[in-house]
């Protein structure tokens, strides 16, 4: 079959979608990849052809403001709403025209934030599956609104709080996004949607959730077409470690990896405080800068730095990962059974931090800009607590059990073969009534 795979031009989106493309081409399917120029080679390298962003404005995810001057620093609900409107929704009509220019396809598979596929699926009647590349953002009567960074309440007063917040978001953010979506739909000759804009990103036929139930807040109203598929993009293998690598692993001391991923890479947010906080700890530190090198005087004697590090070599030797909470990096660490300290401050990262803490596999610092002392105390807590590593191992086992790209493509093929929604076998993936939170409100 001919499949169009759409990925927003962000590193954390391109990697798992390219992994799906690899599995599809490996099974003999023809794949057309719709993504930005910066990530085209991720897909052509696995046998897909490339459909560029032309009618939708292509952009550099390292400098969003160059294309979308409205976006801010990504902190808080207002920033989330602004990004949602300008980067993801208002580009939708252009995305749809680009996708239709690729010609007829048997299946549309979209990064959940690439809304162009939903518009084309409706216009053409093409089967469509969406891939949730971050924790599930679908509204729920059991949860506070996604983006607030709040844990689900467990008391009557707390549940009333969550209900009030859902109503407030419906009157403000959702109403605003609904108006934007109506305008976008009109550009491609579609009537106003019957559902809200926040629901329009998820396919009613099949949603592939990049993750596992242990990393989600339990809910009783999870739609039946949502399937957890584990880790879609394990770390690539084969890259050589830096020359200083033997110096760290030969010390016998616990290895702490510090990273800010590929987005929000200002080192003053996390890298520099972490290095200062861990300078006198009985650990060694491997720091990934994600951009240029840090000043030499900012790297203490027990630490080393590189722009990128080979996770297939690094993670099996790592005791704790300190991260700003990018979902791909979190899943990579937990897939290797490594517990985390998460400093999530922007966009979806506070939500990710809460879920890591709720799973028991790490500590949520509840800030994206921690002090050196906060980092040092959290790392010491994780190193001293066997429970963190046990919970990380349990999440690793679940990630493996859910099947990754093979399970995901089995579901995609089933969607085309059978048509209509693809329901889960189990109604409640948590097996405990859905609404019981593991965290604290």
CATH architecture of the largest domain: 3-Layer(aba) Sandwich
Radius of gyration: 21 Å
What is the average of the pLDDT values? 91
In angstroms, what separates the terminal alpha carbons? 47 Å
- Placed side by side, the strands forming the largest sheet appear as 3-2-1-4-5-6-7
Strand content: 5-15%
* CATH H-level homologous superfamily name of the largest domain: Glycogen Phosphorylase B
* Protein structure class: alpha/beta
> Under the CATH scheme, which class of the largest domain?
Alpha Beta
Total strand segments: 13
**Shape field:** globular
Fold-level CATH name of the largest domain = Rossmann fold
Order of helices and strands: EHEHEHHHEHEHHEEHEHEEHEHEHEHHH
- Number of structural units classed as domains: 2
Assign a percent range to the helix content.
25-40%
Low-confidence runs of at least 5 consecutive residues = 433-441
Count of DSSP H/I helices: 16
Largest sheet: 7 strands, parallel
Keywords: Transferase
Pfam family, one: EryCIII-like_C
GO molecular function, one term: hexosyltransferase activity
Biased composition (Gly residues): 431-441
């Amino acid at each position: 079959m001919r499949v169009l795979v759409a990925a927003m031009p962000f590193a954390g989106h391109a990697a798992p979608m390219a992994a799906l493309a690899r599995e599809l081409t490996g099974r003999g399917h023809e794949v057309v990849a719709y993504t930005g120029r910066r990530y085209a080679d991720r897909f052509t390298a696995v046998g897909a052809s490339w459909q560029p962003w032309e009618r939708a404005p292509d952009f550099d995810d390292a400098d969003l403001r160059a294309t979308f001057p409205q976006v801010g620093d990504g902190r808080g609900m207002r920033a989330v709403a602004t990004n949602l409107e300008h980067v993801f929704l208002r580009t939708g009509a252009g995305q749809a025209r680009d996708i239709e220019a690729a010609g007829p396809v048997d299946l549309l598979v979209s990064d959940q934030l690439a809304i162009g596929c939903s518009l084309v699926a409706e216009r053409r009647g093409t089967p469509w599956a969406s891939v949730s590349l971050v924790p599930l953002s679908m509204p729920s009567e059991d949860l506070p609104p996604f983006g607030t960074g709040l844990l689900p309440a467990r008391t009557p007063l707390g549940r009333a709080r969550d209900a009030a917040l859902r109503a407030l978001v419906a009157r403000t953010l959702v109403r605003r996004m609904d108006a934007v979506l109506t305008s976008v739909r009109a550009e491609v000759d579609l009537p106003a949607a019957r559902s809200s804009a926040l629901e329009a990103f998820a396919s009613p036929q099949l949603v592939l959730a990049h993750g596992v139930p242990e990393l989600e807040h339990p809910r009783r109203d999870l739609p039946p077409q949502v399937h957890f598929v584990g880790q879609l993009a394990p770390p690539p293998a084969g890259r050589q470690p830096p020359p200083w690598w033997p110096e760290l692993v030969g010390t016998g001391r616990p290895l702490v990896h510090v990273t800010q991923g590929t987005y929000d890479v200002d080192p003053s947010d996390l890298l520099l405080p972490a290095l200062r906080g861990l300078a006198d700890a009985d650990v060694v530190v491997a720091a990934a800068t994600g951009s240029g090198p840090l000043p030499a005087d900012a790297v203490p004697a027990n630490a080393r730095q590189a722009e990128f590090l080979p996770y297939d070599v690094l993670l099996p030797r790592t005791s704790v990962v300190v991260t700003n909470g990018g979902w791909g990096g979190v899943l990579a660490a937990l897939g290797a059974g490594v517990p985390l300290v998460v400093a999530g401050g922007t966009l979806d990262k506070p939500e990710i931090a809460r879920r890591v803490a709720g799973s028991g596999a790490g500590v949520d610092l509840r800030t994206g800009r921690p002090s050196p002392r906060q980092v040092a105390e959290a790392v010491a807590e994780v190193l001293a607590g066997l429970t963190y590593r046990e919970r990380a191992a349990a999440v690793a086992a679940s990630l493996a059990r859910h099947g990754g790209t093979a399970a995901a493509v089995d579901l995609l093929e089933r969607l085309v073969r059978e048509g209509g929604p693809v329901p889960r076998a189990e109604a409640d993936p948590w097996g405990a009534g859905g609404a019981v939170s593991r965290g604290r409100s």
